[in-house]
Amino acid sequence: MVFIPDEIEEQYIDILDNSTHGEIVLIRMTPTMLNKSIIDASHPLRLLLQENFNINFNAMGRGRENGITGEIDLLINGQFETRTISFYRPQTKNGDPRFWISRLHNNMNAFDMLLLTVWNNNLFAIPLIGDINQFSSALKKVFFIKQNELPQEVLELQTSIKSIYHEGWIQTMKAGDTGVGYTFESLIGIEANSSKEPDYKGIEIKCSRGKSSTLQTLFSKTPNYANLENKRKDLVINNGYWDSIRSRYALYITIKASEINSKGWQLVLDDKSERIYVSQHGKAVVYYEYNILKNSLAQKHKQTVFIKASSKDRNTKNDSNELFLYDSAYYCEESSFINFISLMEEGKISLDFAIHHDPETGKTRDHGFLWRISKEYIPLLFKKQIKLCIKESDY
After folding, report:
1. Residue 349 in contact with residue 242, Cβ under 8 Å?
2. H or E segment and range at residue 286
3. pLDDT one-digit tens code per residue, 125-140
4. Which pLDDT value is given to residue 312?
5. Which CATH number goes with the domain that contains 339?
6. Range of the structural domain that residue 80 is part of
7. How far, in whole angstroms, is CA 9 from its chain's centroid?
8. Which residue has the higher pLDDT, 385 or 103?
9. Domain ends where: 144, 171, 206?
10. Do residue 168 and residue 136 come from a single domain?
11. Exposed (0-12), middle (13-18) or buried (19+): which is 82, by Cβ within 10 Å?
């Protein structure tokens, strides 16, 4: 069953995105679901339920009597109505996790798309059907963050960005791609450092050029090397390639889940073991535990402000005459591991290896194991987002 939304359904999702994105799970309804009043609980949904409500299907006994019931707000004709939702494992079918929303078959048809999300500790079910204006009005009443409800440190940072914007075009303080972030942080008094802690009073700051096509690094995390005795050295020698120009072994590649790259690498997600295997030619080489990645993401991106700057007078890649105008910013809160997994499966999040080994010196060096995302998809990674008011048109 295809859970990918079509063009019309994307319009409904965009309304949620424009209010505040949220953590979402999509389910395409089938005749069997509606006729039998059962829906399989997909792995993303199980993660959503366990993370937000501590509902663990693995801890449930089989049979409806051992299940859990709760409440869910279902959108019907522009209004949210509270319904009962049940979670259980049947005696048959290997006890596969299931759920059902009471009387859902009265409100949806086969092949309609259902969106599930959590907001302010409540579970919502949103069919992507009906009058889109009515749909928009209903969502904006619930899924919305007001400027005056932002944390104080975010409001302070917003004031600083606004002040820098009104200074106009500012010459870069460092040539190259890192200049945009270095210049901004210098302007607000943050010294360059290699700390993994957030940049400003618990808030991570990410700056980029407004029209840049480069990827944004989310975090760097060393994988589990499994049976590799010498770890990085064995990885690059056994699974890398020979760089004849620099006379060294190298492994500089981008790896995605959505496709196998030219050197046979791919990310393989295993929901049962909750691991992401980094495989080459179908064989797992190293891996990541879900929990390790989840903690890394949460540590680095609990609260993040993404700032974009217009750029001019950049005639070469490392032009020291480049000027920046910091004219756009978003505050994003609570990174979502569920969305992280979904974006990875779609190829929008990738893993970069950047390692080399010099056989003459015997030294192996890496520039990090970088989890990266296309900048245009960054807001989709968070449960909540709001555009900060920097210029008059933002209000």
Report:
1. no
2. strand 283-289
3. 999 999 999 999 999 8
4. 92
5. 3.30.70.3570
6. 7-144
7. 20
8. 103
9. 144
10. no
11. exposed
